[in-house]
């Protein structure tokens, strides 16, 4: 059996601080048409796709901050994306900064949506793992202030049955956490979409800068393999307002293999015919959760947040060589 969903991963190159949304939407529409021409059922764009990645700057003027957020989806500037979806009969997912009024207050989330081939929003996800810091590190030219500008997502990790499969979403830093994929895997996710904005350099903790591309793929490949799901990772790439963002957008098979990968750090579409039934192999064997998971042994994962190493030195359970001389 085959259940093919042809996916386009639409990597975006840089977007300037003052570039209007209409210019970005134009680029996105061009890629959507190219995706349709390449036979895609679904196109996936990056995190915060509609503007520059503004959390790099410390800002205090709330009006300036809010200018990077969408108050409605679709709004007048994003409506053409939905209209083109409907016209072409293609699904899409993209990330944006969301401003909403909930529980009687204004709230800010780093959000992505899933839109089906009839241009209906069928899924929404608000980023849960917010990286960076909330304090002003003005000694660095570029900061990472997601903890200042966004609240932790309050919708959990959802999965939706749509477009012939079970689809999940997460956003950027979420991809580094095995819990993300496992919660989606436990809902039977067969294809996980995620966008990212990942700098090649973290000025306040540069120790792993040289491994940024490796870690990007490592976490998506392991998430795909361990949960037997397709993973579509899509970058905002290139030199954007002084931030050097990695590319490496890719489509990962349930085997953990990268089957398509971008080769530039500009607008670039990569596509692959994803057979969702491939995800079934390991869901029914190695990673047959019903047969092989042992949740009674996993309590710490939800009961505890920080690591708690043993307080005491280990005591011997047995001393088979008691009395013999140990080497210094
Ligand atoms: N956007 C995003 O989540 N980026 C982070 C980099 C954070 S650097 C402090 C990532 O995990 O790729």
As for the CATH topology, it is Nitrilase/N-carbamoyl-D-aminoacid amidohydrolase
What is the number of helical segments per DSSP (H or I, 4+ residues)?
9
Order of helices and strands: EHEHHEEEHEEHEHEEEEEEHHH
**Number of beta strands:** 14
Derived from helix and strand composition plus strand pairing, the structural class reads alpha/beta
Could you give me the name of the CATH homologous superfamily?
Carbon-nitrogen hydrolase
Q: Can you tell me the number of structural domains?
A: 1
Q: Describe the largest sheet.
A: 6 strands, mixed
The second-level CATH architecture is 4-Layer Sandwich
Low-confidence stretches: none
Identify every distinct bound molecule in the structure, by name, code or SMILES. 4-methylsulfanyl-2-ureido-butyric acid
Provide the spatial order of strands within the biggest beta sheet: 5-4-3-2-1-14
Cα radius of gyration in angstroms: 22 Å
**Proportion in helices:** 10-25%
Distance between the termini: 63 Å
Shape: globular
Structure characterization notes:
The protein has about 325 residues and is of the alpha/beta class. The chain has a single domain, classed as Carbon-nitrogen hydrolase (Nitrilase/N-carbamoyl-D-aminoacid amidohydrolase). About 25% of the residues lie in helices and about 25% in strands. It has 9 helices and 14 strands. The strands form 3 sheets. The chain has a 6-stranded mixed β-sheet. Helix 1 links the parallel strand 1 and strand 2. Helix 1 packs parallel to helix 3 and helix 5 packs parallel to helix 6. The longest helix has 17 residues. It is globular and about 80 Å long. The protein starts with a strand and ends in a 25-residue tail after the last helix. Bound molecules: 4-methylsulfanyl-2-ureido-butyric acid. Keywords: Hydrolase. It holds the Pfam family CN_hydrolase. This is N-carbamoyl-D-amino-acid hydrolase. InterPro entries: Aliph_Amidase/BUP, C-N_Hydrolase, C-N_Hydrolase_sf. One of its GO terms (molecular function) is hydrolase activity.
